[in-house]
Write a structure and sequence with these properties.
single chain; about 300 residues; mainly beta
Amino acid sequence: AARGADPAMPGALAGLISIDSVPLRQRATTTATAAAGSFDTVEADAHVAAPVGGGWLAFDAAARRSAGFETTPDDQRTAFSVPARHRRFSSALSAVVPFGSGELAARWSSFAGTRTLRFAGADSATEGMDASIRYAASGQWPLALTGWVQWRDFRNRVVNGQSGRITLDQRATPSSGWGLRAELRPRLSSAVSLTTGMDWRASEGVARERAFSGSGQPVADRAAGGQRAEALLWLGANTQHGRLATSLMVSGQYWQLSGGFRRESRLDGNIGTPDFSFPGRHGWLASGRAGIEWRATDGLRLF
């Protein structure tokens, strides 16, 4: 949905996209699929759900594998050209249970995958984990509380297509993020409703890599990273009077960048780039906006 007069959050400046998950109780209790195709491609998915203690518990898993196809044009292939093979696996555990006057939902998921791009040894790998917990209560004072954490890592090797030697080894790029969100949407009357809340999130990451010479000898180790945090507060009001709807929202955001650094250690005896620490930065941003929607006819709305 995209509506200028009914924003769901302050970031929805030009509208919003609403994505709703199918409730566990409405999903099939057990499903499984498998398929095979060309290039030795195999994939499989499975889902199992069951009622537990007045709620639902579900487990999902998926796997993909393929020997891949040639991504390099025939006239550009070398002795080191290989098909773009890949593997991927993911799993998720979800639970929804009644809690007080509302519902408590928790989810944990993970994934891992490997891929080869064009040349033998040019391999990359990704892996990650997500976990979240959410409480939602309806009624005259709808309340939603959410907390989440994420972790990611990525590794990549760059290979010279003519010599087959490695030129860059991105050994690790671990990053993590976490956040909290609270939102209250009281309905003051049949025509007036409010929305207020806060969103706080933070993240940090680092990239570690090793560079190689044309002969394949390691020449330098490098690392860079930093942290980011931001907090958002907002207050909004929505009204509905016949065919006319209005909205008003004000928000304030605090952001901070810290811990930025870059380091290089030479392995070939040459003088490297001096280590550098980036100065921290922070600031405040304030914004406000208003919207009007007039339903001229059942098929025509003006914003």
